[in-house]
Amino acid sequence: MATQPDMSVDLAGITLRTPLVAAAGTCGYIEELPSVTDVRNFGAITTKSITAKPREGNPPWRLIESEMGLINAIGLANVGVERFMAEKLPGAESVDVIVFGSIAGGSIEEYVQVAAAFDAAQHLPAVEVNVSCPNTSDGLEFGTDAARLREMVKEVRAALTQTKLIVKLSPNVTDVVSLAGAAIDSGADALTLINTISAMAIDVESRRLRLSRGRGGLSGPAVHAVAVRMVHDVYHQVAQKANVPIIGLGGVLRWEDAAELILAGATAVGIGTALFIDPGCAKSIMAGLTKWTQRQGCQSISEMVGVAKLAESPSVVG
Ligand SMILES: Cc1cc2nc3c(=O)[nH]c(=O)nc-3n(C[C@H](O)[C@H](O)[C@H](O)COP(=O)(O)O)c2cc1C
Q1: Which mutation among 195, 226, 254 tests ligand 1's pocket best, with the greatest number of atoms within 8 A of CB?
Q2: Residue nearest (by alpha carbon) to ligand 1 atom 3
Q3: Alpha-carbon dihedral 217, 219, 223, 229, rounded to 10 degrees
Q4: In the chain, which stretches have pLDDT less than 50?
């Protein structure tokens, strides 16, 4: 019988027992996912994004189904950092999985405030900065402009003394590689990509936009191929050289989707929308990934990272 391959991965010095990471905003704060499934199939889970002050989020409808996924405009509903630290974070002690904190904000000061609180706490070895948030002063997303992203990542980096910094990039840009480069130059220990893709849906009978805010973020199978392309480009053009690992996510429902992201350059793989369909999906994804790693003759899943590569410089497509 073939020996069991090593399915653990090293994410910026943090050992994850499996490459799977539950994605921010799709698995509650901390204790919700462990209450419905065996989280030993995950290497880590990510909290929903926490802001300095509590937020109710957007009015309904704020989550709808589309043909190939979900469109959400939750609006960062969360209890705020103070209540999170007092009521939610203690749960991290009893769950059998590593917990990553996620931060959102409307200003650099807000990101820094939450980052400093997370850093002072035990049980959060890494924080993920969700940069797909609009700056309240001008409405522009932090993650869509390299100079602005650089400034924010530097400031958050400076607030962290013991916690690894993961920067979660926005896919709503024309050149994700330069934004990834900006995040790495400013001190990101790891990158996550992709967040949701800006989208809209219309009810044809009422002739109204279906989401209360009009726009939302598309996730699920519809975005998977975009995620594969972005992980591939970022890995081969900037992340591999800088030795900065990537958590690749977007539309992972089956083990093949996860394998594709790993071959594109992801060290770990996020699971988001799939948790709404089957919170227990990590079990079959891990079983498939393990057999695949064995079949491919690898002793460790890490041997697969970035193996699939565009042969030449990108050509015109279409
Ligand atoms: C309902 C919902 C809520 C989300 N909330 C957050 C969030 O609070 N912070 C964040 O960084 N990403 C959030 N996301 C984005 C996911 O973490 C993930 O990046 C995206 O959905 C793509 O992965 P998927 O196709 O596997 O869902 C949310 C996604 C969904 C569907």
Answers
A1: 195
A2: 25
A3: 80
A4: none
Nearest-angstrom CA–CA distance, 222 and 78: 27
Q: Is 133 a catalytic residue?
A: yes
User: Ligand 1: does its nearest atom lie under 6 Å from the Cβ of 102?
Assistant: yes
Domain ranges across the chain: 9-60+76-198+217-304
28 Cβ below 6 A of ligand 1: no
Could you tell me if the CB of 281 is within 6 A of ligand 1? no
Tokens of 152: 């924010």
pLDDT tens per residue, range 241-284: 999 999 999 999 999 999 999 999 999 999 999 999 999 999 99
CATH domain 9-60+76-198+217-304 topology: TIM Barrel (3.20.20)
Tokens (6 digits) for 46: 């990510």
Helix (H) or strand (E) holding 80: helix 80-83
Closest CA to 111 of 173, 193, 168: 168
Say what the pLDDT of residue 183 is: 98
